[in-house]
Amino acid sequence: EISLAELDPEIASWIDAEEKRQRNGLELIASENFVSRAVRTALGSCLTNKYSEGGVGKRYYGGNEFIDKIETICMERALELYGLDSDEWGVNVQPYSGSPANFAAYTALLSPHDRIMGLDLPSGGHLTHGFQTPKKKVSATSVYFESMPYIVSSETGYIDYDEMERRAKMFLPKLLIAGGSAYPREWDYARMRKIADSIGALLMVDMAHISGLVAGDVAVSPFQYADIVTSTTHKTLRGPRSGMIFAKKQYMDDVNAAVFPSLQGGPHNHQIAALAIALKEANKPEFKEYAKAILANADALGQGLQKRGHILATGGTDNHLLLWNVRTLGLTGSKVEKVLELASMTTNKNSIPGDTSAINPGGVRLGTPALTSRGLNEQDFDHVADFLHRGCQLAIEAQDSILESRQEEGGEAASNKKVLMKEFLTE
Ligand code: PLP
Fold it and tell me: Strand, coil or helix: what is 413?
């Protein structure tokens, strides 16, 4: 059969280039990881050819004998990994990714325009937790449900649970949502359960970012507090891009119906098989070591930055990610992201507590899961901190020299330079 390189050299060469970029750079995006060869094999397998709408044993298509086996194993492994009793909890492993998993969870538990309350996006929450601005309902979850967020304290960067309680008692959401995309601290699920109970709300935990840390026993497990737990599977869990919804047994029929036929069609069987493999990997003792190393490395990276004079939101981290405050250096997250990218370090700009502009955030989010998978240890992360520090110095120098040349130079050369650098300055 004709190879990819022969059939489509253009795409083949871009895949090749991306593989090299991933290999040769320092991957510090907190939500990314490197999956095993076994997971990649399943993703590229014949399972991608198969339609299997429905659930195990009740499909709308024939030929699902083996698919049923794979999906069953995947569900069993998911429950086992998190120590869940199948009499109490169920799981759906069909969501295509984290966002559809969340939307399906909401439609399972709520009616249109019911109220939800999650962590605000600029405070480190995810879009799907109901994000909207005063001008626009940005996320579909804020279009179809009424959303009022809770926030982190602009002084400490920690979630303000007293304020959460005050808002919850005023807004009376039906669903309180824990979990975020850029929150470097442990969650107080017990407090959130209390708040939810005091207003008759359900508690959902979106553990997307930390599902590998929960599996590795280095983060508090949300299962003893939550009614429903959603997750992506491609972050700290180190699986394929996919989603899962765990729910207490009484909600499972509604969850299953919300995934199919309500939101999705045929499940992506190649992803489900790849997820089953990742769940098996995550249940090995080595994975616990991996999870511990992610945390130790995040701590080392944080300390490495702090000893070089940098400021971290909340003063450090309890998990795999750090929020690096570059605003106090007179920079923006976008500028630092850009300069670091030129030096083959991949990060992302992120808002930090106290930011006033969502378009020009003052921070950079850093994460250790991917480079920990590549075997870096705490000393290595001190070097990474040094690289980041030097990158940041370059950004400051670049900014200063552009500003100086703007003031001092005239003529065509200067205006060309201005055009070239305009992008950087407006970042
Ligand atoms: N939930 C959280 C907390 C996330 O951080 C993310 C992704 O970053 C999602 C949900 C959405 O996942 P996906 O990008 O797979 O749709």
Answer: helix
Q: Choose the residue to mutate in 29, 94, 103, 128 for probing ligand 1, maximizing ligand atoms within 8 Å of C-beta.
A: 128
Cα→Cα distances 128→31, 125, 149, 151, 197, Å? 15, 8, 12, 15, 23
* Centre of ligand 1 from the C-alpha of residue 233, in Å: 9
Q: What string of pLDDT tens digits covers the 427 residues of the chain? A: 899 999 999 999 999 999 999 999 999 999 999 999 999 999 999 999 999 999 999 999 999 999 999 999 999 999 999 999 999 999 999 999 999 999 999 999 999 999 999 999 999 999 999 999 989 999 999 999 999 999 999 999 999 999 999 999 999 999 999 999 999 999 999 999 999 999 999 999 999 999 999 999 999 999 999 999 999 999 999 999 999 999 999 999 999 999 999 999 999 999 999 999 999 999 999 999 999 999 999 999 999 999 999 999 999 999 999 999 999 999 999 999 999 999 999 999 999 998 877 678 999 999 999 999 999 999 999 999 999 999 999 888 887 777 777 666 555 555 555 555 666 666 6
Name the pTM for this structure: 0.94
Q: Tokens 């969650």 appear where?
A: 187
Mutate to test the pocket of ligand 1, among 103, 121, 232 (most ligand atoms within 8 A of CB): 232
CA 143 to CA 422: how far, in whole Å? Answer: 36
Q: Which residues contact 65 (CB under 8 A, 6 or more apart)?
A: none
- ipTM for the complex shown: 0.99
